[in-house]
Amino acid sequence: MLYLVGLGLADETDITVKGLEIVKKAERVYLEAYTSILLVDTTKLETFYGRPIIVADREMVESDSDAILHEAHVKDIAFLVVGDPFGATTHTDLILRARELSIPVETVPNASILSAIGTTGLQLYNFGQTVSMVFFLDNWKPSSFYDRIKENASIGLHTLVLLDIKVKEQSLENMARGRKIYEPPRYMTVAQCAAQMLETEETRQEGVYHEDSLAVGVARVGARDQRIVVGTLKELTEVDVGKPLHSLVLLGRRTHDLERDYIRVFAVDEKTFDQSYEKYYGKTY
């Protein structure tokens, strides 16, 4: 049996009771370590679970999945995923491969950023499509996220923006030369995301959002030291909410008064918050 076990968002104690029981009895335990990260290192997981863990990087999961699935017909294999097992399409691919090999699969859900973002006080049913923000390069600045935000904005919905992480990634030069040399880990910040959003608006100039549009920046959601900060996009380009992981929510115009009251306490500047809110939000049309 292949078990995909969600770990939650923060530390080793976020695993469910069912998930922990599976991990303890599994023949092998893998940790998917590139679509997201926990806020503690692998040794803490091993100590808490009482099991050795094999770290599965992108290359193993996407190119050598059969190694993970080896003997899963007759033995229990646990594949641990930060957040919820279905938070990334990669994990769907692994399940499809298991099905091709007639390997039974069971999933154990857990909290993901898609649900835990409710800690901001924004109502989950007021969210539209989730988008991803990648690190811009000098010659590559994709703006597909902008089109999805435009669609959400057209019906007044919030947009959750998931920020890029680079873990065990190779440079283009090293990939071209076939060298197994990896770049240091990089994690996009709220400030970088806000700056790239404004850069894209400056380029596209479709008025989807503005410098004084309101957004919520979050860091380390679910951890004891989680941070929430609210401000205009311009203000958020200058905030520092500390260690990863970060996410950002761009407010939709249909923001409810209860949502406003909840997030106002996190405002960088209550005066600018009130001005922007009066200008753009609380609208039902």
TrEMBL record:
Broadest EC class assigned to this enzyme: transferase
Keywords, ordered alphabetically: Methyltransferase, S-adenosyl-L-methionine, Transferase
SUPFAM superfamilies: Tetrapyrrole methylase
One Gene Ontology term of the molecular function aspect: diphthine methyl ester synthase activity
Domain Tetrapyrrole methylase: 1-236
Annotated pathway: Protein modification; peptidyl-diphthamide biosynthesis
Catalytic reactions of this protein: 2-[(3S)-amino-3-carboxypropyl]-L-histidyl-[translation elongation factor 2] + 4 S-adenosyl-L-methionine = diphthine methyl ester-[translation elongation factor 2] + 4 S-adenosyl-L-homocysteine + 3 H(+)
A GO BP entry: protein histidyl modification to diphthamide
Gene3D superfamilies membership: Cobalt-precorrin-4 Transmethylase, Domain 1, Methyltransferase, Cobalt-precorrin-4 Transmethylase, Domain 2
InterPro entries attached to this UniProt entry: 4pyrrol_Mease, 4pyrrol_Methylase_sf, 4pyrrole_Mease_sub1, 4pyrrole_Mease_sub2, Dphthn_synthase
Binding locations of S-adenosyl-L-methionine: L9, D84, G87, S112, I113, L163, V221, H246
EC number per UniProt: 2.1.1.314
Superkingdom of this protein's organism: Eukaryota
Record NCBIfam families: dph5 (TIGR00522)
Described function: S-adenosyl-L-methionine-dependent methyltransferase that catalyzes four methylations of the modified target histidine residue in translation elongation factor 2 (EF-2), to form an intermediate called diphthine methyl ester. The four successive methylation reactions represent the second step of diphthamide biosynthesis.
Record-stated family: Belongs to the diphthine synthase family.
UniProt-recorded name of the protein: Diphthine methyl ester synthase
Lineage of the organism: Eukaryota, Fungi, Dikarya, Ascomycota, Pezizomycotina
